Amino acid sequence: MPVPESTQHLPVPPVAPDAQRRRLRVAQAILLLFHTTGFLGLAFSQNPGFYLQFVPLNLLLTALLLWLFQPDRGPIFSVFSVVVMAVGFFVEVVGIQTGKLFGVYEYGATLGTKWLGVPVIIGLNWLLLTYMTGILARFLPVPGFVRALVAAGLMVGMDVCIEPVAVHYDFWSWQFNRIPLQNFKGWFAVALILQVYFNRTEFVKRNPLVPFVYLLQLLFFFGLGWLIR
What we know:
It is built from nine helices and four strands, in the order αααααβββααβαα. It is mainly alpha-helical. The radius of gyration is 18 Å and the shape is globular.
């Protein structure tokens, strides 16, 4: 009997061997240490600027650990990664230059070196969110486009938690100090396009570290946002 399209690609990983489980626990411990240190430093330190300088490093570390647990790191996955980073970066360039996609905003110094007014590392952020939410959505036994909608919603949900923290710590700033609804609409539209691309790209879409990272980042930004209100 043929397997329905909505379920045949669902990730059902085998039980990991002891070595794989140990690697996973080590990676989780490293990420938990970095995020906990950053959370406490930003929330309670008299010098949050010291901790903010490590934001790009934390993003790079998270990307490296996720990459290590990605089973298929061949050419197709590499091309997918480059395309998503490029799209994410240049969408931000258009957003900064025109104010038409997300509203009128500009980047601060926290995210590091900028090109065309946009931090170079922002493309990596788009890739991580696209990749993680795409994998999470694949656990749902629904058609591909519905999974894309769910994953795009998860991306916007993360952005809702990030925005107050990002503004407070000079990741970026908005005109009139107001986060416009247009930002979330634009995010959803771009995220949906990237999720459709994710679904149509053939590589192994399974990563045991993804649920932990997504939940950790969600709690990190939600908690900071609650404290700085």
